[in-house]
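Protein: Sel1 repeat family protein
Species: Amphritea balenae
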Amino acid sequence: MRLVMTLLAPLLGWISFQLFRMPLFKKSPRKHRLVMKLFRYAADNGSVRALSVYGHLLFYRGEGETNKVQGAIYLERAADKGDMKAAYQMGKIFEQGYQNFPMSQEKACRYYQAAAEQGHVLALRRMVDAYSEGELGLDVSESEAGFWQAKLTGITAQG
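Structure follows.
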């Protein structure tokens, strides 16, 4: 049964994302509860996209500290599974520190770098700034800043 749910998780994540974006019943509390349940179910069964979106919704739009902490946990799981948006958000969380996620320049840098390597524009900008200014515990390095700047320029030139 667990295998079936793991295989269905991406589909449930997709369905919940489509319902979330649908303008029909936009302010409906019932729709909101259903979508959040679907996101959580898909996230708990391995959908990386659901982990990322559900974590983001809980952290940035959740009510109360418990929801925000739970959102950060989901974001961290998504980032550790390779989601670039979640990796960038975890970089911000570790850079600023939050509740159970104490400030850590090393972890912030690791998450920013993971997101930047996948082409996340804001993470690329943060890496350029970090190497240019010697932030996040990094030494000033014009060559590293130039590397990330070239990658940023290549991505922004594409589209």
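Remarks: The chain has eight helices and no strands.
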